[in-house]
């Protein structure tokens, strides 16, 4: 039955591709291995098929408030009333247009009461834009030829003007390294998408010439050279997005750059903090 549902979703998603839509309910399967009270699960075939359906539909979990687990057996399972099992089986998904136009939409899972499933309430709430960006180390920096010299420069910097404990010295070096790594990123990694697009246009021009002169050795060599450069740029771009947004089960080299951009927008919207529970158990939602 699950496979029938997945096929129906993938088939019908095209009818709603140009406008915001959501789908929610009990999917009867967890998406991630940590969504089980018994600890981390082995990713099963059913979970993989569920994730494949999610990616094919280009949908993502809405921002979720409160409870992680949405189902429990109420302490009873096949006659055994002392084993409590809880899972996340209920979800609320939105498509790209939903996150793009209703970025403040969020799913609030409530206490289940006498039911084995938690009810969900969809909330619309305006939120402030995040201020500033946290520094994050990108693994692709380590593959650059200048990476080692950048680290060495920061670690061997002249610290005569710095007076303090060894810990303060290390802190200064780390701040310097962060600045140098940001410079490395802006010099060699920031324009990767534009560079790849430009080289792809070059490839198209070369291949058009090859169509008229297929035995031209210079054109053939140039085609191989630029193709390798484009492939490297695409691999770097996908590696960056894979690390930034932690897309599950997506392998490098699948050319899912457009999908990455959509997930980036969805995750940015979903990860915004809109309410905090105080020590008294009351929710505070005032953005000021």
Automatic annotation (TrEMBL):
Organism, as annotated: Cephalotus follicularis (Albany pitcher plant)
Gene3D superfamilies the record matches: Endonuclease/exonuclease/phosphatase
Record-given protein name: Exo_endo_phos domain-containing protein
């Amino acid at each position: 039955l699950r496979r029938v549902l997945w096929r129906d979703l993938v088939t019908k998603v095209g009818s709603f591709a140009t406008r915001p839509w959501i789908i929610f309910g009990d999917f009867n399967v967890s998406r991630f291995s940590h969504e089980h009270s018994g600890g981390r699960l082995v990713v099963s075939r059913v979970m993989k098929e569920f994730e494949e359906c999610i990616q094919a539909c280009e949908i993502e979990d809405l921002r979720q408030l409160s409870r992680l687990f949405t189902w429990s057996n109420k302490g009873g399972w096949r006659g055994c009333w002392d084993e409590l099992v809880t899972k996340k089986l209920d979800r609320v998904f939105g498509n790209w247009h939903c996150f793009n136009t209703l970025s403040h939409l969020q799913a609030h899972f409530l206490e289940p009461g006498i039911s084995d499933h938690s009810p969900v309430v969809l909330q619309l709430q305006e939120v402030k834009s995040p201020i500033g960006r946290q520094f994050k180390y990108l693994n692709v920096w380590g593959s650059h030829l200048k990476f080692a010299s950048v680290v060495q420069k920061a670690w061997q910097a002249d610290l005569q003007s710095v007076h303090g404990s060894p810990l303060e010295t290390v802190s200064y070096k780390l701040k310097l390294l962060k600045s140098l790594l940001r410079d490395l990123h802006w010099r060699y990694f920031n324009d990767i998408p534009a560079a790849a697009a430009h080289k792809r246009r070059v490839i198209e021009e070369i291949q058009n010439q090859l169509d008229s002169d297929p035995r031209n050795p210079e054109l053939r060599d140039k085609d191989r050279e630029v193709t390798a450069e484009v492939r490297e740029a695409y691999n770097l771009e996908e590696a960056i997005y894979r690390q930034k947004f932690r897309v599950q089960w997506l392998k490098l080299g699948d050319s899912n750059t457009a999908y990455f951009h959509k997930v980036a927008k969805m995750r940015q919207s979903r990860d915004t903090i809109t309410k905090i529970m105080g020590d008294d158990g009351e929710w505070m939602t005032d953005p000021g």
